[in-house]
Structure formats: structure tokens, C-alpha cells
Amino acid sequence: MTATVEQVATDGQAEPVRRGRRPQRSPLARQEDRAGWMFVAPWVIGFLVFTAGPMIASLVLSFTDYQMIQAPQSVGLDNYRELFNDPRVLKSLSNTFVYAAMFVPLGTIFALVLAMMLMRVGKAGGFFRTAFYLPEMTPAVAAGAMFLLLLNGQQGLVNKVLGWVGINGPNWTTDPNWLKPSLAMVSLWTLGGTVVIYLAALNGVPKQLYEAADLDGAGPLTKFFRITVPMISGALFFTVITNTIAAMQMFDQAYTMFYGPQQKASASEESLVYMVYLFQNAFQFFKMGFASAMAWLLFVIILLITFLQFRIGNRYVYYHGER
Amino acid sequence: MKHLRLPVVLAASALVLTSCAGVGGKEDEGGGGESSAGSTPSGTLNVMGFSGEDEVAQSRIAAFKAAYPGVTVKNNKGDFDPQQFLTAVSSGNAPDVVYMARNLIGTYAAKGAIQPLDDCIKNNEIDTGQYREAAMNEVKLKDKTYGIPEFYTVTANLINAKALKSAGVQVSDIQTTDWDKLEQTAKKLYKAKNGRPARIGYDPRMPDFFPLWAMNNGAELVKPGGEPNLNDPKAVEALTFAIKLVQDQGGWSNFKTFRDTFDIFGEKNQFTQDQLGVMPIENWYVNVLRDARKNGLELASTPFTDRQGQQISTLGGSAWVVPKGAKNFDAACKWAKTLTSVETWHKAAEARMQTVAKDKSFFTGLFTGNKVADEEIKTKYLKPTGDAGFDQAIENYYSALDKAKSLNPSAAGAEIEAAWKNAVGKALGGTATPQAALDQAQTEAKAAFDKASQG
After folding, report:
1. Looking at the complex, does the CB of residue A153 fall below 8 Å from at least one CB of chain B?
2. If we measure between CA atoms, which residue out of B83, B444, B448, B441 comes closest to residue A279?
3. Rounded to 5 degrees, what angle do the CA atoms B341, B346, B348 make?
4. Sheet holding B196-202, edge to edge
5. How many CB atoms lie within 10 A of CB A106?
6. Phi/psi of residue A49, nearest 5 degrees
7. Which of B14, B111, B197 is closest, CB to CB, to A67?
8. Selection from A18, A193, A281 nearest residue B414 by Cα
9. In this complex, which of B3, B253, B261 lies closest to A175 when CB atoms are compared?
10. Are A177 and A211 in contact (CB under 8 A)?
């Protein structure tokens, strides 16, 4: 590190400031510096080109009327004012919140149950781990189209199975009240990554804790809530945050199921999630400036939610057995 | 910090470059260029939005290549994708010629994404009188022409004759003039099982066909200048009736759920499976149904009429446009002219007839934006099919050609369409009354139109 040294004269008078010299670095150290930068350069350039650059561009565009063809015209804060005057922004935002409120807890529980089951399957674990992760690799468009068939209220497999146990299933994809729950269900399809994280966390819980609990006569529920949950709380916290961010940015399934070429004319406002409306503004209505303002509003909302999650979550999360 | 200088400079440069990327900002008016009847185009012609797989498309591409061997055609196959198109134009990589739905042209023209073709038409001596007037109206905005019409789609009622027989309904009962009678007919044809639809009697094709029902009741959803008129009392009345039809047949949620199970393009479609009695649909569907005859299809057809009994139809179809920034304007003009000329349509019809002969099937007509070509091809190739129902359907479509009307082009066409579709969706779902939904749609569409008109 470069140091600035201020020497004070013994008579109390301040001497002129003298900058300290950086210690001479050896040729080997400089070579290592260069090598280090070369190694991180792909990521740094990728970040600047594909993330930071477009983010700054979209921030600039959010203060303009940009229709993609002509040069952007500055409109000051008009786009941000319009965010609060457009009822569909609020509607899509509330739809997204409701969807996230269903998907995140449901996804966490579902993935945890699957991971705990995987812990107990023994030699077949490898097969099931692959099987559960495969949907992550399936294109969202294909999954969306498949779920349209599975969730059809009249001939879909889901309602047929429900019918076997005497439940008359709803019209998942056409009843406005069931559109968001059906989207949450479809999103469970892609929880393979979360399952793998939980599986790793569960494998990291020391066995002796359970043995000690057994000696103390603890039951399965006690062990789960007193040992398992605290010991994997770091993983739970991480996935809750990342799944919340993903839920707020939900696009693929909603677009495929309700706004794709075959479905767009039948879409209900109840399925309009925020990112779909953003996409419509950008590419259907040529309002790229407004869409950029929408993107920044979502960024701020996600930032606030994540901040709150950290403030609240840190009280309950154990790192290496300690809070 | 000296050792950080190079990476920082590189990073800053990349940042500046990427910040600029996508912002566009090119002020050039784009495209243009010289094109005349005598010019010989060369180079590469980049085509976008044209799937071009069947014999009708392939024969016309071949006709262009034969006429202009100096041009290399690069067809980026696939349907028109607004995102792909806009990013290509704004990044300076515009294709030369684009195939898009005519109802999009007003919006794209107003935004400056496509070029006026008046010079192209004049210099290449393209006879616009050969195209149907309604199609030409769709490709114009503020007295400038932005597209050359290609296909043309019109609507008529297609009927599952077996369903009519089983319900004791006559083909003549399938009409849209008397709404009360239509409602009674739909109820007669409708069948339910376990509280869910087992056969829809009459599908009004909502929400897509709302403009047709508005037209049926005498409403014009977009005024001639492009201003929206979505909450016209006649439009509200039409929407209310169409929703009533749906409610009579299981209610929207059950109705749509059942309709989603139809295998529309399959041989075991909604007609052969007795899932549907009647629906208004465009002319291309007759081609699809041809193959369903071996599964027992008995087709019948009636014209779609207004409440005074006059045949009406909404209008759909495509056009060729030249985007801003197109590099080979001359070839693009020649392409649009060649692919829509009478001679080329004849080649397409010949190719279709060869396919028909090979498949031992029959010709169901070729419906283009070129009136002269349509009439000549009809006279030359259209013969009785041997199936009275198909003959009637084909005749109904041909008779609709000169009566079809499109929504007037508007600078806010995309927003107007989104507004009425959203309103109809809300009214069908029961979250708003037709009046409230269309009032809100009108407010939104009018605001978009005012803004677009200012631009």
C-alpha cells in the first residue's frame, strides 16, 4: 500500500508533507500482478460489457423518450412520473408480489423436502440428483408449453390425478383466480439448483449432533427444528434471497403460457407479471425509455427487499454454528 | 496504483463503448436509395419474417431469383419477431425487406422504423390498382404508402354439419343477423357433461374476433384518422352479446379451458371430434380441414353477416416493407414487386396445383392482396371439389373478399390493439363490465394515440 507520511517537527511546526515511496516491487511480484489481472480480465470485461455498461445505458435511457429508431430525447423525470400514473404498473407489480409470496415459501419447502428424501435414497442418489436437476436444463418455453397441457382444467393430467382422490381441480390456466398459483406451480419445476444446495448443506450437518440428540431422547421434529434448520440456515437464507430475486424477475413461463404467439389474445390481467409488462413496453409499444425506468424501479424494489431480508435474516442465520 | 492504470483504462473504454451501444442516436433518415424499373439490382438481399416453406412461397422466391440472378437472397427464416426487428434496425443491421402483418404497419411507420415506398412504387412502375383497396388502405399512413400487400385473409362461418343434424338445427339457422336466434341456436348445439362443456355450439372466437363483432353491430373501433373509438356504444353492445354467448355455453373459464383442448391443426380436430358446432374463421383453415375429411368431417358454411344481413368480414394479411437503414433498397423494391405481381402469383398457383395433384386433393383457392391475380387464378384453377360443404365455404370466402374491411391504420395501432384485448379479457373474466373495461381501454388508447400523434 502507498502511505502518506506526515512528519511533525520536534518544535511543533509541521514540516511540508512528504509522500512516502512505494516499496520497490520485485520483477516477480510485478509479473504475478500482470498474470492476476490477465486471469480476472475476462470476468471484468464481461461484467463491464454485459452488465455494468447496459445498466448505465438503461439508467440514461430511463430519463429519455427512446423509441429505438430515432435518437433518445431527454424527458427528465417524466418516465418515473408515468410509473405512478400507469395502473398496469401497479397491477403487474402486485401480481409479481403475490406470485413471489407463493413461490418462495412453497419452493423452499418443496426443495427441502426433496433434498431430505434424496439424503435417504442411498445408492440411487446419483440418479435422482440428476433427475431433479434436469428440469433446470429444459428450456423454459418448452416447460411452459408442457404445463399448459398438464394444467388444462378439463383434460390435463394434474386434474385427472386430483380426480382420482375426489378433488375437482380448478381451471388452472383460465380462471383468473388460479393463474398466479399455476405460475408458482410451474416454477417449482425448476428447483433442481435449490435442491442441490440443500443437499450439500444437509450433508454438512455433523452426525454427532443427531447422535447427541438421540441420547437426549429428541424426536424427529425436534431434531429437524433444533438441529437441521439452524445448521442449514445459511443455505436456506441464500436460496430465499436468490429465489426472491428470481421471482421478482419472473418472465419466461408467464410469457410462454399467457403471452406467447398462441396465447396473447387470451391473456388475463391477473397473469401480467412485471417483467412481461416491461417487455411489452420495450418491444411492443416502443417505449424503451419507460421500460428502462420500470427496470430501475424493479432494481430498487429488489434492493430494498434484499436489504430487509438481510436485516431480518441475519438474526436467525447460523454461520458455523454461531449467529 | 500505477499497476492498475492499464486495466482501469481498458475497463473505462469498454464501459463507454457499451454505454453507447444500443442508444443508437443515428439521425440519418435511412434507406432510400435509387430504384427504377430499368435498374438491375445486385448484391445481397436480406429477408426477415418470411418462413417461406411451402410451394407457394418457394415458387415465388424462384421467380425472383430467375428474374434477378445477380441478387443473392438470404432469408432469415422464421416469423416476424418485433424484438429481433427493432434491435436489428436500431443497431444499424437492418434487413433489406421484411414480411409483417399489415396491421402493424401504422405503428412502425409512425415510429420511423420503415420507409415510405412511394418512390419505389413510382420508379418501378408498380401498379397499385391491382391490389385490393382495403389492403392498400392498411399499408398507408398520412397519405404515404409503407408496404406492398401480399396475402389476404377473410372470415366466414365454418360448420360441423354432423353436429347440426344431431341437434336438429338447419344450416340456414347459422347466421349472425338475428342475435336472439343465434343465441338460441348456440344453446341447442351446446352439450355439457359433468357441468363442463362437451360441445361448444357457437364459438364467437373472443377475444381475437372482437373487431368482427363490433363491425357486426356497426361500430368502427378505429376512426379513419387513427383515433381509437373503443367504447362506442355499439362496440359495448357487441361485447356484451359475445360474452353472453360464452356465458350460455359454460362460462369463460370452462369455455376457454375446453377450447384449449382442440387439436386445431390435427386430423382429429374439434369438428371431427364433435367438440364444436360452428365458428367464424379465416380462409386458410379450409386447407387444414381438407385432410380431416377422411376422419368423417362433414363441412358446411355460411357467410358472416352484419345485423342487417349484409356479408361482412374483418381483414388480415401481410405485406412487404423496407426498414429504415436497408442497404439494398433497389433489390428490396424489386422483391416486393416481383413476389406480389400477377405473373408470380400464377406461378404460385401452378405450384399449388401440382401439389394438389400429387396429394390427390383439391384446390381451395389462393387469397392474395392482388385482386387481378385472384380473379384470374379463380377462373383458371378453381373447380367444384366434389364436396358441397367445401364448395360453399370456398365460395363464402371469395364473396367476402371485396366486402372485408380492416381496422383503420393508426400511429398507436399496437397500443390500441393491446388496450382492446386487455379490456375484452377483463370483461370475459368478469373482473370488469364491458362498459367499464372498454372505457378504460379507450382512455389508455386515446392517451397513446395523442402522444404518438404529437411525435
Report:
1. yes
2. B83
3. 95
4. B191-193, B196-202, B276-282, B155-160, B299-302
5. 17
6. -75, -45
7. B111
8. A281
9. B253
10. no
Closest CA to B245 of B232, B259, B231: B259
Distances in whole angstroms, Cα of residue A258 to Cα of each of A180, A276, B386: 11, 10, 41
Q: CA triplet A126, A129, A134: central angle to 5 degrees? A: 125
SS3 sequence of chain A: CCCEECCECCCCCECCCEECCCCCCCHHHHHHHHHHHHHHHHHHHHHHHHHHHHHHHHHHHCCEECCCCCCCEECCCHHHHHHHHCHHHHHHHHHHHHHHHHHHHHHHHHHHHHHHHHHCCHHHHHHHHHHHHHHHHCCHHHHHHHHHHHCCCCCCHHHHHHHHCCCCCCCCCCCHHHHHHHHHHHHHCCCHHHHHHHHHHHHCCCHHHHHHHHHCCCCHHHHHHHHHHHHCHHHHHHHHHHHHHHHHCCCHHHHHHHHCCCCHHHCCHHHCCHHHHHHHHHHHCCCHHHHHHHHHHHHHHHHHHHHHHHHHHCCCCCECCEC
A152 touches chain B (CB under 8 A): yes
Residues of B in contact with A30 (CB under 8 A): 3
B contact residues 222-261, partner A, Cβ 8 Å cutoff: 252-254, 256-258, 260-261
Q: Which residue among A53, A72, A176 places its CB closest to the CB of B431?
A: A176
Residue B448 backbone phi and psi in degrees, to 5: -65, -40
**SS3 state of residue B48:** strand
Q: Residue A227: what residue type?
A: I
Measured CA to CA in angstroms, residue A186 lies from A94, A135, A250, A288 at distances of 19, 11, 11, 29
**DSSP β-bridge partners for residue A19:** A4
Write out chain A residues lying below 8 Å of B207, CB-based.
265-266
Strands (E), B151-245: 155-160, 191-193, 196-202
Residue A101: partners with Cβ closer than 8 Å, 6 or more residues away: none
Q: With contact defined as beta carbons under 8 Å apart, do B400 and B311 qualify? A: yes
Cα–Cα distance, B452 to B113 (Å, whole number): 14
Q: Looking at chain B, how many residues does it have?
A: 455
3-state SS class at B401: coil
Could you give the dihedral angle defined by the CA atoms of residues A58, A59, A63 and A65, in that order, rounded to the nearest 10 degrees? 0
Q: Alpha-carbon distance B89 to B46, whole Å? A: 13
Min Cα–Cα distance to chain A from B394, Å: 26
The CA dihedral of A73, A75, A77, A79, to the nearest 10 degrees, is -70
Bridge partners for B97 per DSSP: B47
Question: Are residues B332 and B326 in contact, defined by beta-carbon separation less than 8 angstroms?
Answer: yes
**For residue B233, what is its C-alpha cell?**
356504444
- CB-based contact (8 Å) between B3 and chain A? yes
Which strand (E) or helix (H) includes residue B187? helix B179-189
Pull the grid cell for residue A309.
431480508
The tens place of each residue's pLDDT in chain A, 323 residues long, gives: 344 444 444 444 545 555 556 677 888 999 999 999 999 999 999 999 999 999 999 999 999 999 888 889 999 999 999 999 998 999 999 999 999 999 999 999 999 999 999 988 877 878 888 888 888 888 888 888 889 899 999 989 999 999 999 999 999 998 889 999 999 999 998 889 999 999 999 999 999 999 999 999 999 999 999 999 999 999 999 999 999 999 999 998 899 888 876 654 456 788 899 999 999 999 888 899 999 999 999 999 999 999 999 998 888 888 766 66
Please name the residue that has the C-alpha cell 421478482: A248
Q: Which three cell numbers stand for residue A283?
A: 418491444
pTM of the complete model: 0.83
A307 is written with which cell numbers?
Answer: 436489504
Whether the CB-CB separation of B333 and B322 falls below 8 Å is answered with: yes
ipTM greater than cut 0.85: no
- Smallest CA-to-CA distance from B405 within B103, B184, B32, B175 is with B103
Distance between CA atoms of residues B336 and B326, nearest Å: 14
